[in-house]
Write a structure and sequence with these properties.
This protein is of the alpha/beta class and 340 residues long. The protein has 2 domains: 7-34 and 158-330, 3-Layer(aba) Sandwich (Rossmann fold); 41-142, Rossmann fold (3-Layer(aba) Sandwich), CATH 3.40.50. The chain has 10 helices and 11 strands. Helix 7 links the parallel strand 7 (172-176) and strand 8. Helix 2 (41-54) packs across helix 3, helix 2 packs across helix 6 (149-166) and helix 3 (71-83) runs parallel beside helix 4 (97-105). The longest helix has 18 residues, at 149-166. The protein is globular, with a radius of gyration of 19 Å.
Length: 340
């Protein structure tokens, strides 16, 4: 029996789905969405709030503020509701409606940025707004997930050890790349582990994180329009960029087998399956991290009209993943040199 008094005290950390029968590749999917925040972002949110409390930055009069495309905002809304803090989430027009409504239901305020910055896109506009807000009123406490070491430390302490415990013979780990908190926490942990593990970052086409050209990205969660300050590429063996159409196809293929998972998860699964297919995986032990569940994407990734308007009428004509269309950025262990 598990009994808790605050929602952040619970997270299912040992649930995996064997995807071999669905995608024909040896891949275990670590499902991180089974907590009251519905995503892996609960871990980073709890770590960053605890760090701000230890440092004395948070007081009863403080107002937590953060930039989020959705999942971290929900996690912080939940923690704020359970601890008595006020919270303001700064997001943009790509944040889906169910996520915004969920944050508001938890008592948070949501400010939506509608115009991107000319150079740094929606993320840059969100960050500019937060800087102005904090400069004008010292009650605002910005956790800043983009630079906060608690973002990666949460996964160094919890996510990576949980995977190592269940898969002592792990060969390759696939991790989605947004702020790179999950990526860096896991990569740092497995760099120090007793046996080599290949860490493959999975990113979205249109993200600049690994040297790609900036482009339109409509599915929130992964990818960045600026270089992630937390990223240290010396810990990453490869990065795979996935077209959003393949993200959609992966999500729908999983749903056809009863697993309704989120857009970030679809990207990670697509990238992992493509990588394994190109590398003749055989009996490799491979794990991919699924950051979220699918309910918050019902009006986007799982909505036919939305999909057809953005990706064309044939986006769902087949759920086969176009693995060959992925862009791969390989690197030797001692250096990093993106190639397009």
């Amino acid at each position: 029996m598990t009994i808790i008094s605050v929602p952040q005290a619970f997270n299912e950390d040992d649930l995996y789905v064997d995807l071999r029968s669905i995608f024909g590749q040896p891949l275990f999917l670590k499902c991180e969405g089974f907590n009251f925040a519905g995503s892996i972002k609960l871990k980073a949110a709890a770590e960053m709030v605890a760090g701000a409390e230890r440092e004395g930055r948070l007081t009863p009069k403080s107002v937590l503020v953060e930039s989020s495309s959705g999942n971290l905002g929900v996690a912080l809304s939940m923690i704020a509701a359970s601890t008595g803090y006020r919270f303001l989430c700064v997001t943009d027009s790509r944040c889906n409606l169910p996520t915004r409504l969920l944050m508001e239901a938890l008592g948070s305020q949501v400010h939506v940025i509608t115009e991107p910055d000319a150079k740094s896109g929606f993320l840059g506009a969100r960050l500019n707004y937060l800087r102005e807000l904090c400069a004008a009123d010292d009650r605002y406490v910005w956790l800043d997930q983009y630079t906060n070491p608690g973002n990666w430390m949460a996964h160094y302490r919890t996510t990576a050890p949980a995977i190592a415990r269940q898969f002592p013979q792990l060969d390759v780990l696939f991790v989605g790349s947004g702020t790179t908190g999950t990526l860096m926490g896991c990569a740092r942990y497995f760099r120090e582990w007793r046996r080599p593990v290949r860490v493959v970052a999975v990113d979205s086409v249109g993200s600049v994180t690994f040297g790609g050209k900036p482009g339109r990205r409509m599915i929130p969660g992964l990818g960045m329009s600026i270089h992630p300050p937390l990223l240290d590429t010396s810990y990453v063996d490869e990065a795979v960029c996935v077209e959003e159409a393949d993200t959609v196809r992966a999500c729908h293929r999983l749903a056809r087998h009863g697993f309704l998972l989120g857009g970030s998860t679809g990207t990670v699964v697509s990238g992992a399956v493509g990588w394994l297919a190109r590398h003749d995986a055989g009996e490799l032990t491979a794990v991919a991290i699924a950051p979220d569940l699918g309910e918050r994407y019902l009006d986007t990734v799982y909505q036919t009209n939305w999909l057809q308007s953005l990706y064309g009428d044939d986006v769902l004509s087949s759920d086969e993943l176009a693995a060959g269309s992925q862009t791969v950025y390989p690197r030797p262990r001692r250096g990093f040199s993106p190639v397009s």
